[in-house]
Amino acid sequence: MNPLLFRLFRDNEVKVHELNYLFWECTTRCNLHCRHCGSDCSQLSREKDMPLQDFISVLDTIPQKNRPKDFTVVLTGGEPLLRPDIVEIGREIRRRGFAWGVVSNDWNYTDQMQQKLLGAGMGALTISLDGMEDTHDWMRGVTGSYQRTVKAIELFRKEPRLNADVVTCVNKRNLSQLEQIYGLLSGIGLKQWRLFTVIPIGRATSDPDMQLSDSEFVTLMEFIKTKRAADGVMNVTFSCEGYLGRYEEAVRPARYFCRAGVNIASVLIDGRICACPNIDRDRFSQGSIYTENFYEVWENRFRDFRNRSWARTGRCEKCSQWRNCLGGGMHNWHGNGDQVLQCHYAKTM
Prior knowledge:
It contains 13 helices and ten strands. With 349 residues, it is of the alpha/beta class. Helix 8 links the parallel strand 6 (192-196) and strand 7.
């Protein structure tokens, strides 16, 4: 799309700000110990699981007339499948007319679990494969995680009712394995593979293996570009992390657009209202479901997400690509600093 036309489209999306994707951080408990975890979850939860009824009261604030057909609730964490009431959760969400899905580490994703979740109306699933066996287990912090992940992919690949994809956090250790991972996933018959890099937050802050150099980042872009140009059996895309300059539309189906606070919101474990769960919750939370009406907050706040002029500072202040980038993804503004943590556009120049 022409950049000018895309900016007009983006501005209209911001003006309308139709909510169609809602994350629920339903637990912070987790049975793995991933090196790159943005929320630094641990086996012992920092917070008690939010009661189901508390979240259902959030959904009940959304007027029927303001629910688009593609409105999706996504259960995230922590590890959502650790909740003993996960099936009941799904049923209650579907009972209110919302589609729902899960972001899972797949340790507990068995055939029996899949059938229960499908029976409760689950329509989407995202799991991670972060390298071949040794590398994936190193990333996940638990031996045997790779084998469970491959079995989970084989399970959901055979289920036509599921819109499922695999994501990979690309880092120094698995960059050279991307071709092997592609062969594995395409051989299983996977249709969607999404790659992303990690910003230095959570456990990744002090882990140099997690961060790609600029040249390594370009290698990743070229890999995705080549796979997309080959028009293979699997749709390979880069995530919506930030503006990519010369790689825009070459590595994903549409131009960069951070939809956090524009189409995406989240309810965090403690009841705070935010956008994507990995965005700085102290700096950008908008209120609490325990003291305010969720949908009124959605309609009337999220100003920092919908007007990004505040981000034109530091390295972004005089950038020629500001109109296309608007300071990158909101998750890249952690802390109270006056500049974005990393600039994808600069890496590709």
